[in-house]
């Protein structure tokens, strides 16, 4: 059986200073929302970008405390745009309200969509956490550059966590706004069919190839060696794929079997996320013909790859 993936070099020491405007780079400030939890760590990081005129990146939850903190951080400056890395509600729930209040257009990677069509009797396990009704005033595409408050952002399409996920490079800087694609406190949730493991791995390779050094994610603190951490994430996921394939060869026949073999001591609070990630890995391995996945009325049935 494949070795257990080595522990990721995670950093959980981040002090969010919730509700305060904290400088993370020249012209970029962070305001962390009070929505901490198992999936959001210390809360969603919203960013105020620019001087004079500004843009708001990932306005976050529709929480009166967070909205008040954002208004204070904006300090009556004109808001040129509200930009989203993606349309999960912990990032986008306040976007429509702030658009109406501030008169700012919404810019993001298109309406929320699945990474692939639903199969018969299938549902999106995180469908309630997606902002299906939100429509952009400007759909950002890969490589598109936008100037906000004297700062130029380069759009980087990074599907995987979800289909419309974007990261943003900063012109003249080695900094990357990495959204939920790369976060230093934990690996990213990939829940099919909302997300796609194949897309996630391809997007990781894409970011690694860009050469940005410091990543600033949407949850948790900055990652000093962002590309190095992304390489560690990629190695972790690839070794997990081998571990799952070997487990299936060794008799694992369900996601539950994999969960018991791979995460025998995992706390109940984290089993749901682990199950979703395993499901994404299994679908990826089936597509790669490394295992066989058969859908039944009682769930997925796994077997070794056919010769």
Would you write up a description of this structure?
It is built from 7 helices and 14 strands. With 307 residues, it is of the alpha/beta class. The chain has 2 domains: 22-236, Metallo-beta-lactamase, Chain A (4-Layer Sandwich), CATH 3.60.15.10; 242-304, no CATH class. It has a 7-stranded mixed β-sheet with strand order 1-2-3-4-5-6-7, covered by helices on one side.
Low-confidence stretches: none
Total separate domains:
2
**What is the radius of gyration computed over CA atoms, rounded to a whole number of angstroms?**
20 Å
Average pLDDT score: 95
Alpha-beta content class: alpha/beta
- Please report the total strand number as a whole number: 14
CATH class of the largest domain: Alpha Beta
- The percent range for helix content is 25-40%
What is the fold named in CATH at topology level of the largest domain?
A: Metallo-beta-lactamase, Chain A
Tell me the strand order in the biggest sheet. 1-2-3-4-5-6-7
Strand portion: 15-25%
The CATH fourth-level homologous superfamily of the largest domain: Ribonuclease Z/Hydroxyacylglutathione hydrolase-like
The CATH architecture of the largest domain is 4-Layer Sandwich
Q: Count the helices. How many?
A: 7
Quaternary arrangement of the chains shown?
single chain
């Amino acid at each position: 059986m494949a070795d257990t993936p080595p522990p990721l070099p995670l950093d959980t020491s981040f002090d969010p200073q919730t509700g305060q405007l904290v400088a993370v780079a020249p012209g970029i400030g962070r305001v962390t929302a009070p929505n901490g939890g198992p999936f959001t760590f210390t809360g969603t990081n919203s960013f105020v970008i620019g001087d004079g005129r500004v843009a708001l990146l990932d306005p976050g939850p529709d929480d009166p405390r967070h909205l008040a903190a954002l208004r204070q951080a904006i300090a009556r400056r004109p808001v040129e745009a509200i930009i989203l890395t993606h349309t999960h509600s912990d990032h986008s729930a306040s976007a429509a309200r702030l658009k109406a209040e501030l008169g700012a257009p919404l810019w993001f990677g298109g309406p929320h969509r699945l990474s692939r069509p639903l199969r018969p009797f299938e549902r999106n396990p995180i469908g309630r956490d997606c902002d299906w009704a939100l429509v952009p005033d400007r759909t950002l595409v890969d490589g598109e550059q936008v100037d906000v408050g004297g700062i130029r952002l380069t759009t980087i399409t990074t599907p995987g966590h979800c289909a419309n996920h974007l990261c943003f490079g900063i012109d003249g800087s080695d900094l990357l706004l990495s959204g939920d694609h790369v976060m230093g406190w934990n690996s990213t949730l990939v829940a099919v069919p909302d997300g796609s493991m194949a897309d996630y791995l391809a997007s990781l390779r894409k970011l690694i190839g860009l050469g940005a050094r410091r990543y600033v994610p949407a949850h948790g603190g900055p990652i000093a060696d962002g590309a190095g951490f992304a390489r560690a994430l990629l190695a972790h996921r690839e070794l997990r794929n081998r571990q799952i394939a070997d487990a299936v060869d060794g008799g694992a026949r369900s996601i539950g079997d994999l969960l018991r073999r791979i995460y025998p001591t995992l706390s109940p609070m984290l089993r749901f996320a682990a199950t979703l990630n395993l499901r994404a890995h299994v679908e990826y391995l089936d597509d790669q013909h490394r295992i066989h996945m058969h859908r039944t009325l009682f769930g997925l049935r796994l077997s070794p790859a056919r010769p």
